[in-house]
Amino acid sequence: MRKILLPAVMATSVLFAAAPAHAAPPAGQDAFAGAQVRIDVGGRKLNMYCLGKGSPTVLFEADAGRAGWDWSAVMPQVAARTRACVYDRAGMGASDPIIRAASVGNASRDLGFLLKNARIEAPLVLVGVGFGALVAQQYAWRSRGAVTGLVLVDALHEDALPAGRDVQLQAALGCLAAAEQGSIGPGCAYPAAAFNGETGPSLAAAQVAQLRKPTYWRARASELDSLEVSATQVRTARKPFGALPVVTVEQGDAAAIVAAVMQVLDQQSPLK
């Protein structure tokens, strides 16, 4: 099977240039390092963290093999305007392990249960990066109008998966074997997030602890192994977004992503 990573471009996109990274860990980053509220999604629980008040709710989707803490420099800024939430997909962060293939379709179904059981109602604006952008689009297509805006950051494209996926899958499986022996294998690191700024000690410790968990590496390998299935699922569900505001960000930092979210929020219809 295969792996990930390619930008997608949409007709309604606006591109933002990258800016310098944060010089210090974002304020409040420690809250992202552990479990917050764990929501049942059918016999399993996914970790979720929300800040702020207002409508629509902005929900963030992390990239492949990554947890919701990647958004620690972005989410609080959005929460100053409206309700903002992050969560960990199955096997990531403080969520329960995967019990099935970590495909886009299964992640989208988990997201539906999460939002329902967390009593987070429409309207929703979804922000996804990389693989998470595919999950966000898949959920938007099946949400029957609940999603009223999308921000896609360095999005993968289901029709243009890059080469080298088998190599990355084998590397993840090697890291899984090391984790099953209670160690972190050589080259088995948590990938840096360009838009997350500096990583403070609490979050760094949480990331290192995750690298020792076989459940994390199973989920990370499964996302890679399921990528071609995921691409087929996205192609099958794909349809025009119509008037839905969609903004893409290429190589964006936290400020660029926040600006894109604010642009989408500015286009939301006022609640009656």
Distinctive features:
272 residues, alpha/beta, 7 strands, 35% helix, 14% strand, globular, signal
- What's the number of domains? 1
Strand segment tally: 7
* Beta-strand fraction estimate: 5-15%
The Rg value, from CA coordinates, equals 17 Å
Number of helices: 8
* Name of the CATH superfamily: Alpha/Beta hydrolase fold, catalytic domain
Spell the H/E element sequence: EEEHEHEHEHHHHEH
CATH topology: Rossmann fold
Shape summary:
globular
Mind sketching the topology for me?
Elements: E1 37-40, E2 45-51, E3 57-61, H1 75-79, E4 84-87, H2 104-117, E5 124-129, H3 131-142, E6 147-153, H4 165-180, H5 201-211, H6 214-225, H7 227-237, E7 246-249, H8 254-266
Parallel strand pairs: 3-4, 3-5, 5-6, 6-7
Antiparallel strand pairs: 1-2, 2-4
Helix pairs in contact: 2-3, 3-7, 4-6
GO molecular function: hydrolase activity
Pfam family, one: Abhydrolase_6
Organism: Duganella zoogloeoides
Folded structure, characterized:
The chain has 272 residues and is α/β, with parallel strands linked by helices. The protein has one domain: Rossmann fold, CATH 3.40.50.1820. Helix content is 35%, strand content 14%. The protein has a seven-stranded mixed β-sheet, with helices on both faces. β5, α3 and β6 form a beta-alpha-beta unit. α3 runs parallel beside α7. This is Alpha/beta hydrolase. Pfam families: Abhydrolase_6. GO terms for molecular function: hydrolase activity. Keywords: Hydrolase, Signal. InterPro entries: AB_hydrolase_1, AB_hydrolase_fold.
Could you give a short description of this structure?
This protein has 272 residues and is of the alpha/beta class. It has helices at residues 75-79, 104-117, 131-142, 165-180, 201-211, 214-225, 227-237, 254-266; strands spanning 37-40, 45-51, 57-61, 84-87, 124-129, 147-153, 246-249. Residues 67-224 form the AB hydrolase-1 domain.
